[in-house]
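Quarterly update from the structural biology core.
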Amino acid sequence: MTDLRRSLALASLLAGAFVTSAAGAQDWPAEPVHVFVGFPAGSSPDTIARLVAEPLAEAMGQPVVVENKPGAGGVIAIQQMLARGNDDYSFGININGPLTTAPRLIADLGYDPVADIAPVGLIATSPLVLAVGADFPADDVQGFIDAAAEPEAISYGSVGEGSGAHLTAELFADAAGVQLFHIPFQSYAEVTTSILGGEIDSGFMAPSAALPHVEAGTMKMLGITSAEPFAQVPDVPVLAGQAGLPDDFRAELWNAMIAPAGTDPAIVERLNAELNKILKNPEVQDRLLAMGWQAQPGTSEDLAERITDDTAMWGGVIDRTQAAN
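Predicted structure, tokenized:
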């Protein structure tokens, strides 16, 4: 067979495979779809998953079954999703940690976020705010950095090593050229109580968690970690570009939909399209914002890029933190 005939045969084979895949996606789903969520019922990731699952089921004509598999910060749910194999009916809705920081923090993870997972699409992002008590002697981030001029003069709380709040604080400290004193707690409620009681100076937390205390006059928000002002707290200035912080400073939590790597690409594309329709619905956007999240429609390539960028960014933070300990 000549090279030309080989090329034509290969092109014909690939075209046939594409048509078969597309046709299969048109008939899909023929049975309930399972979505694995790494946190318990009533948690923020679970609420977001169910907010998406209902209209997704209506659009596809089959139930979307949310299966809560909490444990290891969302890792267990991904392991469970992958254990079912590439059946085109198993997906996940999870936070960023199991896809970006877990490979650096968990020795026997059991999966590779790049090789074993196909990104479907981002769902929503949530920035954190730098919160301090009402009596803290600074009203802006420059004053906070000035107060932290002496190493570990300023304390902050988080829910433990490797948590989003912990890594965000260390990212901020490195960018600001200061050393903060980390105090781990068992829950965000304990962090908040300790800030309000003056036991610790600060913490990075969800805007929705800080807002009631700010409105009550017992807490201040000095800045927010998103690239742009956040609609839930529009008057809180972004940290990027302030007090010597880089213009591209950003630290966001996010939720996303994923699939096993072997899932039919046409199905991934269809899911992405349906997901984007849902996220562009103003009612869905409002419900997400009320929970402290901003809808983020986009392509599966956008999610893949976010995973790559955040893995590199948080990996650097983890390396620096471990080297300092």
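Residues 129-250 form a domain with the D-Maltodextrin-Binding Protein; domain 2 fold (CATH 3.40.190.10).
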